[in-house]
Amino acid sequence: MNYLYKLICIILCIVSPFIATAQQYLNKNINIDAKRKPVGEVLKTISKQGGFYFSYNSELIQDDSLVSVSANNKTVRQVLGMLFDKNFEYTETATHIIIQPSAAMYWYATGYVKDVVTGESIPHASVYEKTQFVSTLTNELGYFRLRLRDRNKPAVISVSKSWYIDTAIVVHASTKQEVKLGITPKNFELDSFVVTKKTGVEGNWLSRLFLSSKQRMQGVNLGKFFADKPYQTSLIPGLGTHGRMSGQAVNKFSFNLLGGYAGGVNGFEMAGVFNINKTDVRGAQLAGIFNMAGGRVSGLQIAGVYNHVMHASEGWQFAGFANLVNAELKGMQIGGAYNHVWGNIEGAQIAGFVNLTKGNVNGTQISGAVNYADSTVNGAQIASFVNVAVEKIEGVQVSGAANYAHDTVEGTQIAGFVNVAHTEMEGTQVSGFFNYAKHVKGVQVGLINIADTSSGVSIGFVNFIAKGYHKVVISSNEVTNIHVAGKLGNRNMYTILSFGVNAGNQMALTGGYGIGRQFNISKHFSINPELTVNQLYLGDFEYTNGFFRLEAGVNYKLNKYLSAYIAPSYNYCYIDQTKFPAGYRNDIPNLGFGGTRHNKDWTSWIGWSVGINIF
Q: What domains are defined for the chain?
C-alpha cells in the first residue's frame, strides 16, 4: 500500500501549486469531545477546525469504526496519537494531512532462493505473499527482502520462477535467521517443445518500452497467479495501489494517471496514455495513446492511436491510427488508418487506409484504399482503390480501381478499372475497362471482357473467350462486295467488329460494331441473329452517314473449322450527304428490295449477305 501514498503525495503536489513551506497543521490546537462516534466523523471535525483535509486508505482506517476521544487545547498531532496510538505516521502538504501506516507495523522476511539440484543461487525469482499481495525479485545472488504486515500472523511465502516448480513455506515474524528456499527444476522431454518467439504483452516491443525488465520478469514468473481486486490507481506501472503486483491483479475499476499495467480488467479502465493488461479485458478500456490486452477482449476499446488484442475480440475497437486482433474478431474495428485481424471476422472493419484479415470475413470491409482478406468474404468489400479476397467472394466487391478474387465470385464485382475472378464467376462483373474470369457463369460488362470458358454473357467492345466463340467472316453484301468481320464471345452472346469496301467505280467504305447470338438447330445447321451499327463513308468526312443492320444468318457447318452462310437483313439508313464525289456510289437508298424513303434523310431496305465463317 506504500505505493498508494506515494502516488497520492505526487498527485497532491501536482494539483496544489501554492505549497506552503511551513503549514504546521499538525501543531494547530483544537478542542474535541466525541463519545462513540464514527472515526470518519471525528476526522471531519478535526479537519474543519484545523482548516485542512485528511487523506488516508479506507482499507486501513474504516470510517464507520466507533471511537471516543476528549481533548482541550491539544495539537492535532496529539489528538491523532490518542486515536491511532503509534500505528500511523503523518505527512503534511499544502492542503492535506496524509495518514499512512507506521514503519513499525511492518516486518521483513529475508533469505536466499537456490536450485535444490545444483545448489546454485537463482536470480530474478519472484518471492511473494498472496493474501497481502506483495512481492519482490531476488537479486543476482538469489537474495530477497520482502516487506510484510501484521507481526501477529505468520506469512505464507511463495516462490515462482520460469522452468521451476512453485514452492511455498510459512514464515513467522519472530524468526530471526534468514530463510533458505530451495526450488526444483521442472522435467521436460527435449522433443516436447520447440523454441518460439516471445509471446504475451511482456514480449511485445511496445510494452517493453513502458515496462521495466523486473516487471516483465515477474510477469513471466507469475504467469498463472492472478487475484481479483476491486480497483487500481497508478501513476505509471509499478507506482500504484498494487505496486510490483499490479500485473497479477484483475481489477473491476482501474484509473491510471499516465499508464497502467494489470493482470486484467473486469469492468472499466482509463489511462491518460496507455493501458497494458496481461490477460482478458471485460468491459471498457479508454486510453489517450494505446490499449494492449494479452488475452481476450469482450467490450469496448478506445484509444487515441492504437488498440492491440493478442487473442480474440468480441466488441468494438476505435483508434485514431490502428486496431490489431491476433485471433478472431466478433464486432467492429474503426481505425483512422489501419485494421488487422489474424483470424476470422464476424462484423465489420472500417479504416481510412487499409483493412487486413488472415481469415474469413463474414460481414463488411470498408477502407479508403485497400481491403484484403486471406480467405473467403461472405459480405462486402468496399474500397476506393483495391479489394482482394484470396479465396471466394459471396457478396459484393466495390472499388475505384480493381477487385480480385482468387476463387469463385458468387455475387458482384464493380470496379472503375478492372475485375478479376481467378477461378469462377457466378454473378456479375462491371468495370470501366477490363473484366477477367476463368469461367463465366454470369454477366460481364466492360470495355474488354476475357474468360477461359463461359456459359454466361459478356457485354463489351471486345469479348474474348479462349475456349469460346471466335470466328473470322469473309462475305459480300448489297452495300460492300468485300466484307470482313471478327466475332468474339460465346454462343450466348458475341461481339462483332466489321470492315467493308465496295471495290470498283462505285466506292463505299463501312465500319461496324454489333452483337449476335447463335442458336444451334442441328449438328450442321444454326441460326445467328445479329444487330450491327455501321458507319458509311461516301467520299466526304463532313457527313455522318450510317445504318443499322439486323441480320439472320443461316449457317451450314462444312467441317470443324469452316462453315458457309446466307443471311437476309433489314437495314435502316441515315444519309445527310447530298453531293457524292466521282467514283463513290450514290444509290444507297435504292439498294436491295423494298426500298422506302421515310423522310429526307432516313431510308430502309431489305438486303442480303453471303459468305464463309473460318474457325
A: 2-101 (3.55.50.30), 105-188 (2.60.40.1120), 239-438 (no CATH), 469-614 (2.40.160)
